[in-house]
User: What shape does this take?
Amino acid sequence: MLLNLYQKVTRFIDHDARTARYLFLIVAIGFGLFTFFGDNKPLQGPIEHEWINAFDSIVSFILFLLLLLCNPCKKYFQEFGYLLIYILNIGNVYLLYATGFDIQYSYQFIVVYVISGWFFRSELAFVFFFTSINTALILSLLVASSTTPPTFDFYATYVVAAVAQVVLIRYRFNVEHMLTESEKKYRLLAQNSFDLICVHDADGSLEFVSPSVKRLLGYEPDELIGHKPYEIVHEADKHIIRSLVLTGKNHPSIQHPIQYRLKHKDGSYVWIETIFTPLDSPDGKTNVVLSQTRDIRRSKGYQIQLEERTKELERSNADLETFAFVSSHDMQEPLRMIANYMQLLKRKYAGKLDKEAEEYIDFASNGAITLQQLLRDLLSYSRITRADIKQEKVNVNQLMKEVLRNIQLEIKERNAEITIGELYSVVSDKNLLMLVLQNLTLNGLKYNHSKTPEVEVTCTTMATGFEFCVADNGIGIKPEHQKRIFEPFHRLHTKAEIPGTGLGLSICKKIVERLGGTIRLESEYGVGSKFYFTLPK
Ligand code: ADP
Assistant: This one.
């Protein structure tokens, strides 16, 4: 507790120069008062005690001014202050001697003597002070003891003061030693850190810059101290730092990493990432900001490369889609002609050609029909990426009824049973959603060997949206094929077994993703499949 109290007092005096200043001002005023109103006893020496008091008052006042005007941490001011403290105390020793160790002056001496001890920041200076003042005092005691022996009061107060001073100063230096040691550790950390560590004052100027700045930006720390880093921020990134200043130091955004460019000494720019952390001063106000800066040139390079590649990919993807769209669109016309003429040929020469020739015509016209279907699917596949998404309220129950009307032929042919559950209305693109539901329902009938195929369409609501499910009692899909069936042209059957182009599910996937959802599958081979797709709310 004692140590704690002591630390508080020393911190109070050391860190608040004002306190020290006022102590010396009080001492100066005290001596001033002694000068004019003190007890006028005859002195043993050649100097009048008023003069000594006046001298002490002036010295204390100079100490007050020194602390008021100058930074007490500057070495030469500090040493000049030590000198004045010696002089002040020697003056007091002389006064004690001259007044015959009068108890009034001994209190005065002891107050100044103990206060002075607090201002020594170096152990050596304190030891010198202590021995010189006490030697001077002992010598004057020896000289005086024959003529005017000092009183017991004087000895008692003096010894207690000297012991108290030594004990307290020892504590102080121990605490300071501990502080210096821990500060040394942190300084070592900051100085040897690979990252750049800086301390900024209240208006952003740099107070401390770690030596790693040389490696990162080519400057010596001294070249940047006192400057604002804003001066070397890339023009294009200045707004980032400006907005940071505007949002204020207490704004939470300050603790997120910010990426920007700083000018290297050689004129080039370096991509860096900084985290600013406001540090609270002992008075609870934020007046210092710590920044940690990291070189991100390499990762930034990768990021830029990746962005360029992605753009390139997007471009070539768009080119491919345009190509698929244009070619499938343009191929439709000549293909329709081939199919029509094949039909015409078949009709006109029916019975006139031999069997083999008729078979060839059948192959050719079937091929043309398959190709037509493929082109139609390709066209709608490439249209999905280009289509504008309309956002409208869609009554999915109603939409499902339309789907059933569209595929009523297939339903009848297969003697199928379609059950529609309670389907939620959504905000989405009606036509695209219809394509998905129709494709999935048709697949439920198509990939189904049951005598009465069953398809059930249901919907559940989730926190982020809706999940629709199209379930069938069809042939099911083996687990090893389940992932790949959403890829274009990936089919599990030959065209002879079950006709199709292999584009239906990839069209569904593309649509669902464009509508902001996902599609997945659960299936048991030989039992049936459930296709789930989500739509955002
Ligand atoms: P297609 O347009 O040829 O029908 P899809 O992309 O719709 O092609 O389907 C791809 C493959 O996925 C099909 O060949 C089929 O094997 C399988 N498949 C799709 N839906 C079902 C389903 N409901 N039940 C079983 N298999 C299915």
